[in-house]
Amino acid sequence: MLEKAAPARSDAGPPAINLISIAQALLVAEHLSFRQAARILDVRQSAVSRRIRSLEDTLGVSLFERHHGGVRVTDAGARFFDRARHVLVQLDHAVKTAEAAGRGENGYLRIGILSSMAGGFLRALIRTFRDRHPDVVLQISEIPSREHTALIRKRQLDVAFIMGAPAVPSCEVLPLWTERLFVILPRGHALCSRKEVEWEALRDERCILRQSDPGPAFQDYVINRLADLGHRPNVQRFDVGREASMHLVALGMGVSLTSEATIANSFPEVEFRPLAGNTDVVSFSGIWSPKNDNPALRRFLSLARVLARKWKNHSGDAATRLSVEM
Q1: Beta strands at 172-186 and 281-288: parallel, antiparallel or unpaired
Q2: Are 71 and 64 in contact (CB under 8 A)?
Q3: Average pLDDT, the chain
C-alpha cells in the first residue's frame, strides 16, 4: 500500500510584493477613488483594481472597503500605507544617491600624497575638486612612496602621487606636473645672500637627505649632481619627516633640498633659494589601478588632466603658478 506523500515544504519565503502595486494603492488611498487614480495613471480602472486586489491577496488583508461612492481605507490599510510611504521615500532617496554616486557626484576618494600640499599643483587640484564635488568624501593619507603601489593594487587607495613616471605593472601612470628644486639653508648662512644657488656652491656643504622620502630617485639625483662636481658628496641621511628635516637644517647640521611646493610653508630659522637655471626639476605623476571603477576617481583624473595642461602653460615662478584658476 502506497503511503500518502506529505505536502511539499516551501523554502521560498514570503511572496514578493510589486512596488508598482504599492504605488498605485497609495494613489487610490490619497484620492479615495479607483477611477481618479486610474485617470492620473492613464490606465484602465480595471487594471488598477486587479493590481490592488492581487496586493491584498498577497498581504492577506483588505486595504480598502469598496462601495458605490468610492472606497474607504481599512485600519490595516492605514497602517500599511503609513509604513509604505516611508519605505518608498527611502527607496527614492537610495536610487537618487546611487545615480549621483554613478556620476561621481558623491561617494569617497582615497588619496595617497607624497609632495607637500602647502602650495603648487597638488593643492590646486584637491581644492578645485573639493569645490566642485563637496559631497565626495576625501580621505587623504601621507604615505611613504614605497607603499603606494601595493595600496593601489589592494584597493586601499584610489589614487596616489609619486615622484617621476616609472612603469608600474598593472597600474596606470599619468605624468602631471613638475616642480623646481630649492636649497634649504639655515638662516644666516653665507648662501642666503644669493638669489639663486649653483650646484658648485654646495660642493663643500653637508647635504641632509630624508631616509625614506621623497624617494630613492630623488636621493640618487641629488647625489649624482653633487658627484658631477668631481668630488665625493658629503651626504647624511636621517629617518625623519619633512618638518624634522627642516629643524635639522635650522640647527646648522647641514643644508638640504626640496621641491617647489614646500616653500609655501613657513619654517623657523630656514630660508629657501632656487637652484640656478631652470633645468633642475622633479616630476610627479598620478598612479591608479585600471580596474578601479570608482566614478569619483574618474572625475578626479579628468580634472587632473585639465589642470595639468593649464599648469604647463604657466612656467613662471611659484606665485605665478598658484594664481592659475580652473
Answers
A1: antiparallel
A2: yes
A3: 82
Instruction: Compute CA distances 139 → 109, 160, 185, 284, whole Å.
Output: 6, 11, 33, 20
**Within the chain, which residue ranges are assigned CATH 3.40.190.10?**
109-177+282-322, 178-281
**Within its chain, how far is the Cα of 51 from the centroid?**
45
Whose grid coordinates read 639653508? 185
Return residue ranges of the chain for CATH 1.10.10.10: 19-102
Q: What are phi and psi of 117, to 5 degrees?
A: -100, 10
The per-residue pLDDT for range 32-63, each reduced to its tens digit, is 888 888 888 888 888 888 888 888 888 888 88
Quick: pLDDT tens for 57-105: 888 888 888 887 778 888 888 888 888 887 877 776 666 566 555 554 5
Higher pLDDT, 247 or 279: 247
Superfamily of domain 178-281 in the CATH hierarchy: Periplasmic binding protein-like II (3.40.190.10)
Cβ atoms of 132 and 109 within 8 Å: the answer is no
Is the pTM of the predicted complex or chain greater than 0.70? no
Question: Is 260 buried (19+), middle (13-18) or exposed (0-12) by CB count in 10 A?
Answer: buried
Instruction: Please name the CATH architecture into which domain 19-102 falls.
Output: Orthogonal Bundle (1.10)
